[in-house]
# Entry
Amino acid sequence: MLETSLIKVIGRGSTVNVSIDDIEDISVVCQHLNDHLATNRFMYSTGIINVDVGRRILVKEELHKIKEIIESESNVTVSRFWCDPSTLSDALSETNGFGVDLADPSKKWQSQQPIVIQHNDPATYVDPDSCIEQDVIDLDEHLSDGGGISETIAPETPEYLNGLIKATGHSDEDLHYDTEYASSAISEITGADEDTLLDDLVGFPVRNESASLDVKSPKTEELIDAYRRNEALFIKTTCRSGEVIKYPGDIVVLADVNPGAQLVADGDIIIFGNLRGFAHAGASGDTQSVIVASNLNAHRLQISECTGVSPEKSNRSKSKGSKPRIAFIRRNSIYVAAYTGRFAGYTGGVLYEG
Amino acid sequence: MKGRTIVITSGKGGVGKTTTTANIGTGLAMRGHRVVVIDTDIGLRNLDVVMGLENRIVYDLVDIIEGSCKMHQGMIKDKNNQDLYLIPAAQTRDKNCITEEQVKELCSKLESEFDYVLIDCPAGIEQGFKNAIAAAEEAIIVTTPEVSAIRDADRVIGLLAAAEIHNPKLIINRIRPGMVKRGEMMDKDDIVDLLAVEVLGMVPADDRLITATNQGVPVIHDKRAVSGAAFSRITARIDGDDVPLMDLDPKTGIMGKVKEIMGMNRGAYSHA
# Structure
């Protein structure tokens, strides 16, 4: 989107990433950030952003400072910090770690080659006096290269804002998703024990359902990959009993979800197969999330806080001949209706009582 | 040539892992291969009983692994087949006294001497299971047509995938064709629909199998047993022969019906 000597702002999908230089002294970077935001305040009218600190190792106070500068000089909220994975092992030994989120921004951005437009590019430049909102939308059109994303700067999503700042170490229900992925990735990189690392690194308890078995889910790699690239998680193999897959975005399954398997997504869940396990969409609170399945045979579903149990008695589910169905929330209850090729606006449907 | 190491597992107990191991081991040996079967169910050893070798045990798996006997001292030669050996489990120890690495090391030695190393896995998914699958490159899942067994099989398939053992083969044990036909029991298609794995074979419920097991003679020796014939076909498939799965639907005429009612249905059905 725009780039200065020390700061790079890139819109990707529905999120905006601010990447700060990792070589220059931190005080210089902070000053630069401050100046930049002060002069370009109109650019950052609302929404949430991610901050990528690159290879730099920062302590909690410094992360706080960056967050403070950004939030005081603009109206955006910092949702999380990212760092280069290669610094994680260093961070552990040198500073005892201060909860930097794990990502591989170089891979994420280089592999996808996003359109990076100079701020003074005539194609995108809009007079700040004319229309601030227009500015945002205009830039977005250039950025969503085929992605069809309409909101570069997301509208208010309070749940997300409630302190997804890992650096602060606030205990937050939302946080455990990130830590789980981080933990898998960390052990992948360092080969060290997940739990010990995480305790040191993040500083709050981690929920880990599979701890007793200490095996990686077969999907771990796909999950980390999708998470790094900031896109939906595509699962191409059967989700089997005992597998718990949590993802802070949308999940698409191109196989069956068997009884005893659990899918938990902050976004929507789409299944091109037989859903017989448990699916939980909108886990971070989004009541607009839906669950769509070619064969929706789940006994129990959850969207946001709402749970529903299938009224059907039969537990023998034949996959033949059934039509895709969609589960959604209406009047604080879960309803399931025949899927008609749209994501919203359903009125009928069968009630799944909670 | 390096031998194939195959683990026979199920998750749920009592579905027929040990019987399957004994019969496949015997079947492969009857086909002229050198086979060793290992009982990894330490503390609850059974395979020796099913193979009728209980009286010959001097040393066991733990003795071999701990080095208190030589590998060949711990291997018991089968009564009927000189190419078949058993390594029994220790009865007085528990599953935590051996490690995955030790099992791997033992199996790699055995692979150089034998064509097939079959590992009989204990029930459950704890340390015993991990030990059993550690050395395996292939897996055979045994299940019965019951939801509980299938649920556990599903879980085990997932755990095997996590341990990089892909494409396990499925044996459906104790199928009752009559019940399947009446819709009272899940059929092969229902099970495959859920588990999404390749079926290696189906073994019908058979009284002769129980008799044979109690006598310590694998049922595959019994030429008249339908279950023995099913195990022969399974063995041939493992060995690479192209034996098609037989249709479970008996397509019986009136006589078949009568026989079925009179409990003389052996032969009327063609069990895979």
Q: What stands out?
A: Residues 147-162 of chain B form the longest helix (16 residues). Residues 265-272 of chain B have pLDDT under 50 and may be disordered.
